[in-house]
Amino acid sequence: MRRTHALIFGYNEYSKQILAQIGGNYREITLFVSNPEEMSVAIKEGWSAELFDLSDDWSVIEERFDIRLLTTFCALANDAENVFLTISLRSTFESMLIIALSQSHESTLKMKSAGADKVMPVLQIAANMIGDMITKPNVTHVIHDLLYEDEGLGVMEVKIDQHSPLIGKYLHDIDFGGDFDLILLAMVDNERENSFSFAVQGYNHHIDKDDVLVLMGDKKKLALFKQFERG
Amino acid sequence: MLGKWIVETSYFLQNYHPYRSVKNIIYNLLENNHYHYKKIFDMVMIGLIFLSIFILIRQVKHELSPEWLFFNNYVISLIFLVEYLFRLWVCSDTSKLIIEQYEHDLFLHRPFSLSRALKLAFLKKFEFIRSPSAIIDLLAILPFFHELRMLRIFILFRVLKLFRYAKSLRRLVSILSSKKFEFVTLIIFTLTVIFIASVLIYVMEANNPKSPVNTLFDAVYWSVVTIFTVGYGDIIPVTSEGRIVAIVIIMLGIAVISFATSIVVSAFTEKLDEIKKEKWVDDVTRLKRFYLICGFSPLSLEVIRRLSKGSIPIVILENDPILYEQAKMHGFMALEYNPSSMETYTYLKINFTHQIEAILLLQDSDVENVFTALTIREMTKHVPLYSILHHLEHRRKLQMAGIDVIINPHELVGLMGKILSSQPVAFEAIYALRSEQTSIVIDEIVLTQGSESIFYPLLKEKLFARRLSVLGLYHHKNREFRFNPKDNEMFRNGDVAIILGDRILINEFKSILLRRGIG
Q1: Is residue A127 in a domain?
Q2: What is the value of ipTM here, to two decimals?
Q3: From residue B388, how far is each of A15, B248, B392 by CA, in Å?
Q4: Do A130 and B298 touch (CB under 8 A)?
């Protein structure tokens, strides 16, 4: 099920960038701020914002949104408050997709324990990028193009449809490079409790419904593959 | 007339390139600790000193061949003499002093005072001649006149020359000389006690026929042996009065030893930080290649962790004492110097071209990073500069400061947020590859022209088939990326294959390629 609504908690440099980037992915984005000062800054910069507090009253969210269609970004500047926000949201909404930002390795572990589905360790992300740019400049260039460029190469997740012609086949039976000009990066096996593995690990998975394939290639060819996969 | 000739000669020498370069080489060889060949020169000199001492000892009970004696008496002494003269030559710039005096007089419309200029030049040279190390050098040459048998013992002065060549010995002297006043006080105190004790023991004991103290020299000898707590026992007081003197001297002796020990210990304690810093600077100077990180922050810590996986060492420059201490606590090679000051790089004698792999500006403010970038760019245009960008509106300023790669964490998080919210599995896969949390990595292989016939068949071998994936070829020349290349894709020199697979397998692939002649 495609998530159509996003909530962003906190207004700072990180959340500004998230707001700027995810616009095309969601039908509606709601910004929550913790104090009137942040609110006035957000409004001044052209965003409508709503106030929230860290008490357990999340009725506003419950009433307004279908939780199953929600993605939440916990992007408060303070890690302790962010952990508290995450745990508070998770205790109320089990099916909400929570993406949290963390400023340190220690906080990353706490965010995970607090119930965040995905954690973005901001310092580690920047450090990895710097490290890659120095040691593997070409790789960094390619990954950047794959992930962030609007045209040309891209990455796509394909969830195997129930009518997919791939169902029942083994990974080694399919020549992704030759037949589709795509490269299979990774796969999530639904049968094995959503276990994630890279294609180059060499496992010859049996493809079933709801498995997820992560493919890389030209965006047009990725779209063609998606059509093919849907039968 | 003489004055005019001397001034002309001085100008000639100042501008005569071969003369200046020879003097410069000799200066570096003798005085510049960072000059590569100085280490070799010092080792040779140390070798000569030990050889000289060996010959002296050997000579006592053995007959030495005339060649060895000639070598010791003439060759080594001559080398030391030449070294002494060179040191005298490079210790000051006489021609410069003469020119300065001449121009000074000219400016004031005064006749040139040659005598004053020569006096100044002589005083500079004399300053060197009367320095302890120069005196030792001179005494070490004296065995040259070996016919004067007594002068042979001066060979031992050559041992003292070791202080010139061994840095640790020089450091020891500088540490101890910082406590000069305390040592002088201690010496005066000790000499006073020895003097009083000698006189007392002589007065008390010399008239007693049973006492071994017969002369004033015996008394002084006994006092020295007692006060330094050696106590041979060959001379002992026999009278009660003499023994009372002994009791007092023994107690004072303990005080003298304790005082001396405490002076040495406190000198070392006070200088410990300085010694450590000097050592770290030396360590950095000796590094062949390293990454230089300006500023220590939580981000620096993460970057260091990431870069530490490679083999290139990392050096941190941090001006803030607290952050510097934090870096040291983590066990990193950190120096407490201001990264935005040119003096820092001059003092550390960093060779940007040969030593620096890349400089990373990771200070907490864009202002500091721009300032540091401009400092570095003033000194070199070629070193790769990477910088963190804290505020997007400052990007242009960082670019203008000459920074090659600018990374803004907020922007990165925004982009990742986009991928994460739409394609979480893809994000996880890419993040796992990036952070190298699993054994699966993306790596680069540099290729050579015409190596297709080895590269593609090797990929299809059983060991690598389906376990290594070539994402693409990066054509170095036209900066074009060919995704999922076909088996007939041609290589040019310097093209890079982007390959995905297990780290061990990639390394094996690389080594086989290397063995078969490409990569």
Answers
A1: no
A2: 0.85
A3: 18, 71, 10
A4: no
